Amino acid sequence: MLFQNPRLSRLSLRIAGVLLIFFALFNLNTQLNVWGYRSLSDLQVKSAAADHQELATAGRVQTIVMEASAFGYTPNYFKVRANIPVRWEIVDRGISGCTNAIIAPDLFEGEIRLSPGKTTVKEFVPSSVGKFKFTCWMGMVSGTIEVTQ
Q: What's the predicted TM-score (pTM) here?
């Protein structure tokens, strides 16, 4: 019998303990994303910050374009100016159940529901300066919009 061996039993308990800690940290990280707090996901965003999308402005509207897929958002870092309207165009490239809606509670109320195979547009005016997190509704996929003066 497998668990009658004390050595295998201890090993199984250790593996289960490590997995339990891993899943607890993973869930904590996703909830930090949903709440807009700093998380381990920010490490990835900082590495992508150098490749952020340059702002396309047409008149007095800032336009940012992002692709959403089952694997994440590309790009996932944007820089915009405060108190100037933003037009956020989100192109569906095969969203999943997790990435079918985007929330950014510190930037706007509600959620952005994405339509399969279409481009969804969200318009808002950022009023505060800082770095604001956007995420899927589960907190597993995230990015940052930096608002400057």
A: 0.69
